[in-house]
Structure formats: C-alpha cells, structure tokens
Design goal:
alpha+beta; Phosphorylase Kinase, domain 1; Aminoglycoside 3'-phosphotransferase, Chain: A, domain 2; 2 domains; five-stranded antiparallel β-sheet; globular; transferase; Phosphotransferase enzyme family protein; Kinase-like_dom_sf
Length: about 300
Amino acid sequence: MASNGRGAVEQLVWEVNGQTGCGLRVVGTAALGETGGAALVEWPDGRRSVVTPATVPVGVMRQTAGALEVARAHGCPVPRHELVVELSESVVAVVQERLPGEHPVGVDADLVDTLVAANDGFADLLTGRPELVLPEVDFACLGATSVLHEPLEQYSDRSRRLLRQLQQLDQLVPRVPELDLVHSDLTVSNILLEAGRVSGVVDWNNGALRGDRHFALVKLLFDLTWEAAEPSGGRHRVQASGLDRLETVLHDAVDPDRLRSYWAYWTVRMLHWVIPSANTSIIDLHVDLGERGLC
C-alpha cells in the first residue's frame, strides 16, 4: 500500500483523507499493536484518534462499531469507532477514539484479576440486540480438514499427534448460543491501564465476536505464556503468579469440555502462525501448551 515515500500507516491516513476529506494529520505511530501498526492522528479541531487497518470486511467492522457503542453505554472502556472506511475491496481503515493509558507492565495475579474484571464487563451485552449481527467463533479449524492444519502436519511427529487429538475435540464444541461481546484478539498489547484500572480494551480490528467472553481469556493466556518464556517475562514482564491466576480463573469459570475446545482452537490457530515464522523453542512452547490443555 505504501507509496510516495509514505510508510504503510501514513499511506492509510492519506487514503482516508482522500476519500472522506476529514483532514487527519499524522502525529506519531503506535509502538505496540497486533494488526500491523497504527497511526496516531489529530483532527482539525484538535481531537486525537488512532487509524488502523482492519483484517475483516467492512460490514463486520461496522457491526463491531455498533457493538462497541453498546459496550460504551454500559461503561466498558472501549474506543468509539468514529469512521469505518472501505478504501478498496480488500482494505478497510478504522478511525477510532484514542483512549488514555499505557500498556501493562508487571503482569501479576492482581493485574490479571483487574483484566478479568474488565472482560466480565462484556457479559450479556448482546442480549436483546438482534440488529448486531456479529459472527460467532468458527470452530471449523477443529474439523477433519482445514488449511490451518498444514503446518502441524508438516512440522513433526509430535505436532501431528497433537493435531489428531485436537481434531477429536470437535464433538465437544459448544453449540449453545452465547450473548457476550468477545474480543477476538485479547492480548496485553491491546489493553491500556491508567491509575491501576483498565482504561482501554482496544484494537478490535479483527472484528468483534458474539459468544462466551472467556474464549478471549484463553487467547490472553497463550499470549502471556509466550511472553513469560522470554527473558524477564518479556516486554510486559509477565510473572508466574499472573499465569497461575488466569489459568485458575478459566478452570473455575468454564465447563471443562468447553474449555478444552477453546484451548484446542487457540492451539491450532497459534501453531498455524508460529510454525512458519518462529524458532523451535517458541513452536515447542505452543505444542507444550496445547498438550497441557488436553489434560
């Protein structure tokens, strides 16, 4: 997308301005993020926002914007999506409110309790909201065949055995509809803190989901486990007490079969991502985590 000497996110802002005439000015770029970076922008009236690319179609992002308005009305710390702009058939830009706060550093048991409480705020938000047609979690990756299986098939005998075990969990996939608002990529990089409270759950650029909010916490567990394996607990300094608390919360709050299906989903998703791009230690970390979730 980048051209004329502009970086990718600056180009995104340039195209948004060209299509909408909103006159956004780039004032910086985000240091952290999970969907390809973000441009920090200022409106002509001085308001500050963030511009990011979405990974899902424009219709899903517009439904997500509506769901976030419902969440905001219930006091959840989520950004208003001020503009959702389809720049081309495959490129969607989101201009969202810039929330205050910093990314967490020092993820211990107390902080995990704070994050879980914020996620609990999404419970039942979609009850009585038939106009918000959000996708549900697609467990097709646990079926007999999926393009997501290829890296596991090719990596090692151990990953192939794990895949066979994960596929058996397809029958455990929950069929009862849930009405929570679900963040599809809940990581510590997508959380902001201010004065000890969660001031922002951001980066909904994969689209919001309708389902069980605890599904998002399993992704957070995978994210924290990866960081905890890095020197000094990674950039967010993840502590063992934080991991232990989050796993305890999940085992206490989620039916065992349902939890295994969530765990299996994220195992397949994460291994599909890390096997082609990460080193052996990171891949084996995720295989270990996947095997542990089957117990």
